[in-house]
Amino acid sequence: MESLVFISVAAIACGADTWNEIESFGKAKQEWLGTVIQLPNGIPTHDTYNRFFSALEPGEFESCFGQWAASIAERTEGEVVSIDDKTLRGSKGLHATAAHVVSAWSGSNQVSLGQLRVQDKTNEGKAIPELLRMLFIEGCVVTIDAAGCYTEIADAIVDRKADYVLCVKGNQPELLTGIEQSFALKPAADTWQDTDCDHGRITTRTCSVIADPGLVPRAERWAGLQTISRVDSEIYYKATGKTSSMTRYFISTMPPDAKSIGRAVRGHWAIENGLHWQLGLSYREDSSRKRKDNAAMNFSTLAKMTLTLFKRDTTTKIGVKSKRLKAGWDNDYLLYILRLLMRLPWPCRAPPQGGLLPLHHRDQARRA
User: How many CA atoms lie within 13 A of 313 on its CB side?
Assistant: First the structure.
């Protein structure tokens, strides 16, 4: 098992996107791989990879991945953990629905903390608390869009001793109306404004916070609720000279500090730019056609593992797609990228005979 997972991670890091490409990578790099791992039975075939990852229970694999991610993340007080969903569109077959995944992302660490499959978007409310129970988020700030604005999810976050900033939209009409009325009738306890310029736009965001949620109907149902917030965004497009605006509302367990809440709201989008966009562009995830049993979910976990490894590398100032090419060309760089993976027990226990070679053995093999 250990050699299958290791070769898969190494191959995907080098640009492989299919089981056939993983087999081809193993055969091309067999001599090098022999200096890093035990290969008593040679390189597995693509059918072996397909059968193994199709049969592998995703929950167990994701649990191992989450423990590994937590071990390399440098958790800090107030760190933003973003939770969002994505559909693996290529996994949809003629008689099956596409795999739908809810993921957690640490923007400050550039680490994917875990993922969980849900049957469809309507089941996110049940899946997110389960994902939260897999994560070590004490002292962090969890941000979720309106699809996760439910009392059960707020309870789960508070139970994990974390804060939340939840977006409120039309799926909670009573809550949304109460927040809008609060801002119409009550003064803000604190405000904060931020401006940035990128991609031909000038965006000004103003975060206003009310410390008294007294006008929110049944506010006691929301565990730890302290503040309600409004974020007004004004976007000026340089090319056309036009301006657009948008207003969003949030509930939070955080104190009435507009700057902290405003930064948490903006930090939520790190999961789109740092995870979903990268998986789509650099890993062509939406083009994947893995549809057998658990193959799509487990391949997604492998891809996120390699993305985490690349994100942790700050020595090479190129994009993730270019890093995958470099890893395929340069064995020393590939070994450097894989260092975090090889220094940890895999998976979730010490590798048995035939698993990864001890570090000093690998170093001796490389010197030889």
Answer: 27
